[in-house]
């Protein structure tokens, strides 16, 4: 017979885990967390990348007012605008195997990325599923 719960937390991302933590600290354990993916973490995803480990996702801070992440990142000067964010001269790009891409290949990849972004209309994203990377690969 299924257990009845009064509290349902939707998503096991940072907010869902924080909500569960607060409930537990207050002595409440009668809750369930529902997660659509096969892992916890939401947009935060640390994964192997060749011989290295990288963090995927959660690279943007959305919203300034009342956003604890924005406040913390601002305090430590960790925020920047996207101006020059994808500059192949300024940054090195790597393949999934961890190999550094030649600058010309990086420039081509950045150009393709920008062209796709320039053509996206909000209505194009209405029925999109999967990750941002999956969407770019399809395009």
Automatic annotation (TrEMBL):
Cited InterPro entries: Amino_oxidase, FAD/NAD-bd_sf, Flavin_monoamine_oxidase
Gene3D superfamilies hit by this protein: FAD/NAD(P)-binding domain
All copies of domain Amine oxidase, residue ranges: 15-107
Transmembrane segments: none
Alphabetical list of SUPFAM superfamilies matching this protein: FAD/NAD(P)-binding domain
GO molecular function, one term: polyamine oxidase activity
Name the UniProt record assigns to this protein: Polyamine oxidase 1-like
Lineage: Eukaryota, Metazoa, Ecdysozoa, Arthropoda, Hexapoda
């Amino acid at each position: 017979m299924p257990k009845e719960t009064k509290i349902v937390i939707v998503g096991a991302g940072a907010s869902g885990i924080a909500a569960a933590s607060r409930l537990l600290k207050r002595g409440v354990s009668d809750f369930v967390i529902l997660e659509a993916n096969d892992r916890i973490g939401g947009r935060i995803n640390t994964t192997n990348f060749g011989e290295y480990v990288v963090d995927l996702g959660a690279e943007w801070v959305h919203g300034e007012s009342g956003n604890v992440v924005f406040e913390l990142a601002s305090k430590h000067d960790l925020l920047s605008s996207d101006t020059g964010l994808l500059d192949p001269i300024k940054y090195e790009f790597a393949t999934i195997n961890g190999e550094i891409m030649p600058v010309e290949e990086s420039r081509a990849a950045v150009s393709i990325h920008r062209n796709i972004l320039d053509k996206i209309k909000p209505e194009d994203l209405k029925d999109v599923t999967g990750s941002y990377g999956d969407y770019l690969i399809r395009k």
